[in-house]
Design brief:
Strand content: 15-25%
Radius of gyration: 57 Å
CATH architecture of one domain: 3-Layer(aba) Sandwich
Number of strands: 25
Strand order of the largest sheet: 21-20-25-17-18-24-22
Shape: elongated
CATH topology of one domain: Rossmann fold
Oligomer: single chain
Helix content: 40-55%
Amino acid sequence: MTDLTVAKLAENLKVPVEHLMDQLERAGHSFEDASQTVPDVAREELLAFLRSRHGHGESVSRDSAMPREISITRRESVEVVQVDQGRRRAVQVDFRRKRKFVNRAALEREALARRQEEEARRLEQESQAAKEAEEKEKQLAEEEARKEKEEAEREEALKAQAKEDAEKQAQEEADLEKAQEQARLEREQAERQAEEKRRAEAAQAARVREDAARKPARAPKAARSRKAPPREELHVAAHVRPRRTRRRKARRHATAKVENVNAFVRPAAPIVHTVEVPESITVSELARQMAVGAEKVIAKLMQEGVLAGINDTLDQTTAMIIVESMGHEVVAQAEANEEAVLLERAVTVSGEEEPRDPVVTIMGHVDHGKTSLLDYMRSSSIAASEAGGITQHIGAYRVRTGDGAITFLDTPGHAAFTAMRARGASLTDIVILVIAADDGVKPQTEEAIKHAQAAEVPIVVAINKIDLEDADPTQVRNQLNVLGLAPEEYGGDTQVAEISALTGEGIDDLLEKVQLQADLLELMAKRKGGARGVVIESTIETGRGPVTTLLVTEGRLRKGNILLAGAEFGRVQSLRNESGKQIDHATPSTPVVVQGLSGAPEAGQDAVVFPAERYARELAEWRARAARERQLAPRKGQPAFSGA
């Protein structure tokens, strides 16, 4: 290589001369002037110094030390001769050619480095994702373990509570039996004392009668007071006569004045009895309570225009009139008091009041879509099982939503089922009034509104079938406004939701309105102690016997409880929810299907749990007897007397 000066080398490297001299000095070669020649050794050592400074060792290859791109500029000078007005003029023209050389090895290394970096980043992300997944799985496992632990603790608490309730029931039953036994002993002792007293009085009276029979008859008082004439055999002076000692009168026994208790004494005034008259009473029983013969009561009835025999049954009104006409005081016997006394033996509801789920009744005109709406909400179909597509009974179903569970009562809309709709309104917390948008308000719709208003139950209106072409929700709102149910859009307080039970449109909005209304009502109930409920429906099925659907209103109903519903009782053998699955217990606002009763009670009857079967049997027999007496008694709608 030709010798290069410092200045020429700086020009080739395109760096300042002072900077190059400084680098050469640090590389171990000092130059005092820029015109000095730089030997090859100095240039190689300068290159090694620069490589070591920038992190390249001696082992780095030549290609790796080369830059990514090298630009070479080549300059050529050409002299062009121009002739202008007879003059020749030379013009110097410079040609510069610039060429770039790319170091492909460096580019490949950079691409490889980028790929390696991306691969490392991907591996790191996968590792992080795997770590997060493992952490999440660990958290899920911990959460599952925690839930299982809580469930186990809850089950233990429920078992402990059940054991405590059973012990409490057993203790209450034992206390009650002890109290009854004590009362029986006291009653027997009082009866023995009364019997002994009666026997003593009878024995005393018998002794008095025997003494009176053995005592000789005494002379009349007038004869006894008359003085006997003086004897004529001896005449003795009066002052010589001996003094006559007077005999002391014997003390009369106080018992001698006891009158004969068996003797009849005619009363000075008529005896007035206080007669308690139940809802129905026989002629013989009424005569016995007034202490008169049955023939007198029959004669009095004939005077009043009623023909009745000694074993015939009279209603309460007729019996009270007869008692008053015969001069006795009459009191109407309240059978509810006796029933309330028997109900006091039931297991009481305990614990603090807690929030409960709302009970919602779906009401409306026939074929307006009540059952279809319920079908959509519970994702099942029951319309096919109903006769003619018309609901024949009240069905209770439980629907779980995002805000909680709702118990629905489905009532028939046909005109023949007025009593069923009235019963459904009395059991419910909220009424959903279903009105078809293409049909409007109908007679059964107005009747449902009256039932809900009579029960003071809030109404949420659901305008159904809005997917039809002839649907007119505005007309329905106007009809509701006329009936006194002003929608919120008209300034009223009635919530209205437009829905389609076929497509599901507006169902979520309807459920939100129902939950909002339930939150405003603040529904509460006690969840501990004996259960109380209402019979929704009951049937007798082949192979299963009496099957009763109950709606629990208070307490907790368990398998094995002694349940009384109306005049039917028995031990709960099976508890099933609305899906037919076996459950161990039922809390308030829960519909359940019960097996084990002695018969099928009437819908609407109250259901209550008793601690022992004999208490339930006693109340059931009393209710059956009262029902039989009401059936035998004359109907109150018929006139009791034909004459004045």
